[in-house]
Structure formats: C-alpha cells, structure tokens
Amino acid sequence: xxxxxxxxxxxxxxxxxxxxxxxxxxxxxxxxxxxxxxxxxxxxxxxxxxxxxxxxxxxxxxxxxxxxxxxxxxxxxxxxxxxxxxxxxxxxxxxxxxxxxxxxxxxxxxxxxxxxxxxxxxxxxxxxxxxxxxxxxxxxxxxxxxxxxxxxxxxxxxxxxxxxxxxxxxxxxxxxxxxxxxxxxxxxxxxxxxxxxxxxxxxxxxxxxxxxxxxxxxxxxxxxxxxxxxxxxxxxxxxxxxxxxxxxxxxxxxxxxxxxxxxxxxxxxxxxxxxxxxxx
Length: 280
Hints:
Layout: H1 14-17, E1 48-52, H2 56-63, E2 77-85, E3 90-98, H3 117-126, E4 134-138, H4 144-151, E5 156-160, H5 167-170, E6 174-176, H6 183-191, E7 196-201, H7 207-213, E8 221-232, H8 238-254, E9 257-263, E10 272-279
Parallel strand pairs: 1-2, 4-5, 4-7, 5-6, 7-8
Antiparallel strand pairs: 2-3, 8-10, 9-10
Helix pairs in contact: 3-4, 7-8
C-alpha cells in the first residue's frame, strides 16, 4: 500500500505514539502532510533526510513530490515513517523532528562505546532523571551505560557483567565479572558500601526475569534510588508484549519500586521499551 493511500496518516502526532523525541507537545515531531511533505513546525526551509523501517522508507521516497529535495549530508530535520502493529490492525506513523532531538545519529559519535549510550541519554531527558552518584550497571558490557554515568559525574559505577568491558570504561569502574544472581556480585556491592542511588539494566534478557532478579539489589539501594530498565520484548504479538510488560511492572511494584513509567524511546529498537521507576 502506498503511503498516500494510508488513511489518516497526516493526522497522527508522534507523542501519541510515544515515539516522539521527548513526548512533548511543543516538539517539532508534528503533524505532517504526506502528500506535500511540509511540516508546520519546521517550515519549507527545513533540509530533510529520511529514516524508516525497511520497505516503508522506500515507499515514502517513491511518493515524495519532486519539489522536495532531500539533503542527507546537510540535513536539519529528519522525516521518519514507521509501522506499529496492534491487535487488529497496523498503524502507520510519519513525523518530522530536528536532528538535535532525535538522539539517534546516522553514525556513532566519536568516543561512544556503543549505540546503547543513546538510550540512557534519552531516558535521562525523557524521564527528567536526577544525576547519579553511585550506580549499579547490570548487564553492562561493553560499557555504554557506564560511560554515560561517568560522563555525567558519577562517583562510583559498579558494572556487573561476565563479559569484557571497553578498556577505557573498565579502567574507571569497578567491574564485577559475574552474573547478577551470583553471591560474589552481592558481596561486591556490600563491599562497595551499598547506598546506590541508581540501578541500570540494559541486559539482553526477558523483562520479567530481570524484574524478579533486581529484587536482590534492594538491600543495597538508597531510598529514592532510580531504576532504568530496558524491556526486551521478544514476542511479535502486541498482546503478549503487553502481558510481559505488565508482569515486570507487577514484580517491580512488589519489590518496592514506585512511579513506574514506560516509554518507547527514539533510541529503542522496535521490540524494546524503556522503564523508569523509583525505589522507596
């Protein structure tokens, strides 16, 4: 189906999807006319590049009016198209945002350990998170989230992962080369003095499993500690993914985490969501 045939495609605002840069109403992620490709926020002077899911991007490019000139190397804004499957239908979203708000550059920034850094940087803005001083980074390798904490002024980062870290990051953190459930990990947290004000987890594991595993960290968290957790959603079924998210939220709530917020960040993959919560 061609994009211009998709019903109500121009009537969607990105923040309703949870896919806008910050989910803010004043963002330039805005209603956009797919026939004229004019963003009312960006104006006709915007220099556009296109990003989208395979197939959809090609369809968008084929349907752009000839008067629209794309400038991928000197772009000021990004035109994005994506498909979001729901229970009974697939919804198609298109929007425009300044590159400075996307958090997903086309190539990795110099010095970044990995692209995962963009998830935590965006989460800090999206959820208005306080600075972290003492951090437990679970599933840390190769060290992207630990790197972000260090660049934001963390005094101590305990990176928990049996795999190796980036050499520069490893030299600046306490690396526990164990799994979270190992007794040696808890010994290391105890030895570091506990009172951690943030626990982060971007591990490649089922979200419900991680929700339960994080209970072991509670004795070492300070009151008001922040949790940031990437929810990996292996199921292609929207209903199953929602059930998985509900299960992990229930597990965290039972473990004393409150103010649970979940968002689909720009930097998340198609089957990822990011959850933030506060330990009480």
